[in-house]
Specification:
The chain is an alpha+beta fold and 167 residues long. 17% of the residues lie in helices and 46% in strands.
């Protein structure tokens, strides 16, 4: 007789850091998929959040989060109550690192807001420039951040994964 062992979904903590390594925010998520250097998380807002650009994000809002351990960005797919894409929010960041049950990255301030029709807005360039001066970002960090913006725009315009996942 054989039995199938049922294992619980793998829970992890996501930690977002600023360049000075200070923690900006954290939340819990579940690993939905791991494929090569990509990690996909499923998460749900644990409390109401007021975002300066996105407005009210109510507790229970679901996201699918795409991280690459070798890319200078991550992508959050916000879902509505029916599971349809409400928007994408892209963070330019250092590559994510996974240390045990903690996934972390350094937020480099530049963001892209992507609407369901895949039109997009580039956000927070002034914050990037200000923090680049404040924390003396290296030339490599500055170049990688700008290259990441170009890569994300190309992914969006060419409807490459995860922007091919509109539901």
């Amino acid at each position: 007789m054989t039995t199938n062992k049922i294992t619980a979904p793998e829970q992890i903590t996501v930690r977002v850091l600023k360049y000075d390594r200070g923690e900006y925010c954290r939340w819990n998520a579940t690993i939905a998929q791991r494929e090569g250097r990509m990690i996909v998380l499923a998460a749900e807002f644990e409390s109401d959040v007021q975002h300066h650009l996105l407005g009210d994000i109510p507790r229970g809002t679901r996201t699918i989060e795409y991280y690459w351990l070798d890319c200078w960005h991550n992508v959050f797919q916000f879902l509505d109550h029916e599971g349809h894409t409400r928007m994408y929010y892209c963070n330019v960041s250092t590559p994510a690192t996974l240390d045990g049950e903690v996934l972390s990255y350094i937020d480099l301030d530049i963001d892209l807001l992507v609407h369901p029709d895949l039109s997009y807005e580039l956000l927070d360039l002034e914050e990037f420039e200000s923090n680049a001066e404040r924390w003396n970002y290296s030339d490599e960090i500055r170049l990688q951040a700008r290259a990441s913006v170009k890569n994300l725009v190309s992914m969006i315009e060419e409807r490459r994964f995860p922007f091919s996942e509109i539901t």
